[in-house]
Amino acid sequence: MFDFIVVGAGFAGSVVAERIANLLDKKVLIIEKRNHIGGNCFDYFNESGILIHKYGPHIFHTVYKDVWNYLSKFTSWIDYEHKVLALINGKKVPIPFNLNTLYELFPKPVAKKIEMKLKNEIGDEKKISILKLKKSDDKDLKLLGDFVYENVFKNYSMKQWGRGLEELDPAVVERVPVFISRDDRYFQDRFQGIPKHGYTKIFDKMLSHPNIETRLNTDFKDVFNIYFQKGKIFFQEEEFKGKIIYTGELDELFNYRFGKLPYRSLKFVFKTIEKEFFQEAAVINYPNDFDYTRITEYKHLTKQKSKFTTFSKEYPQDYDKAVPGKDVPFYPIPTKSNHELYEKYRKLTLKFKNILLLGRLAEYKYLNMDLVIKNALNLFNEGIRNAG
Ligand code: FAD
Ligand code: UDP
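Above: inputs. Below: predicted complex with uridine-5'-diphosphate.
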């Protein structure tokens, strides 16, 4: 009945399903355990009529023109360039740390000296990782590195990840480098925006093709059986010989046989008030104060007009599949031992010729939306269309 089965209706699963349905004219079943499509990008209008992102702030940004063009088939865009402030030493200053931040937090003569050195040693309009700056031979640049590490990264990261930064892949903090510039934007990517009618509408359009059937509230475990010795997969009592694109947690697929892959979860506490705006930017980070890491106010992103406004406080927490409220695996935790464990599962997957892994969970990678979409388009082109 179906040529392909996709597990998960986030961007990974939905993009692949849409391409198969439209370009190959084959039948696809999408199985999604939640009661909605869109994965973690799901947004909806709350009881006060404010469009909110259920799983935290999502800002689309990419350097890839093909990804931007692809997504633009399903939406037009609100021009939005993301800016973030952080409360440091009692002041709300721009993040990533840049020259404006430097002048706000250091006395002018010191800031001037550091600016000159940054421009001479690293270069005007260049970015540098905080970890490299901390190792600088120059004492003023090292002082800056240590300052940013202590005041912006150390405590935020401890809250976010529940462990010290030294345990994590350096790529985590390299996402937010020091920028030797007066540009206050969080991203410098050429293409940035918020979908004009929200993310969920994109998914509605992607999955509206008659070749796609979406089953919500369905866990793959309830409909699949995997037989290890035979390397076979049974779907509703019959062997399924088509391809399965799996975008969920890989340890779960194999019933945790090598142990659990760790993830970090979040708790969002939403509040709506009758006021035009609650805070001065879409996102304000609190590295050193409070138990939450950041507050997001959604109207800044969506530019919606209303006398109400909704914001959310974001509390990081351990992931526990068995505990409601802690059961969303928001972030893979990129440590060496976790990657080794993931590799064991990935190798096991190779025994099943028809399972393809895709997305943030199944690839166990800290991927932004654009890379998930890029990987999905590549998998479709190379692993499905050209593989026959
Ligand atoms: P998901 O969106 O997680 O979708 C996977 C789907 O599979 C889920 O719907 C899940 O319910 C389903 N599933 C899992 N297991 C099963 C099962 N057993 N049976 C059936 N269904 C199953 N990226 C950006 O580019 N910009 C941002 O600003 C940004 N902000 C973010 C903020 C936060 C707080 C987080 C956590 C992530 C953010 N991201 C952002 C990343 C973005 O959310 C991901 O890149 C994207 O959602 C990944 O899509 P996916 O399809 O791989 O995974
Ligand atoms: N980070 C930090 N302080 C900040 C912002 C970011 O320590 O003010 C660190 C933290 O470890 C975080 C990582 O940089 O997990 C990546 O930040 P990003 O804003 O990309 O996180 P995301 O939006 O994906 O949660």
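The chain has three domains: 4-37+207-262+333-385, 84-179, 263-318.
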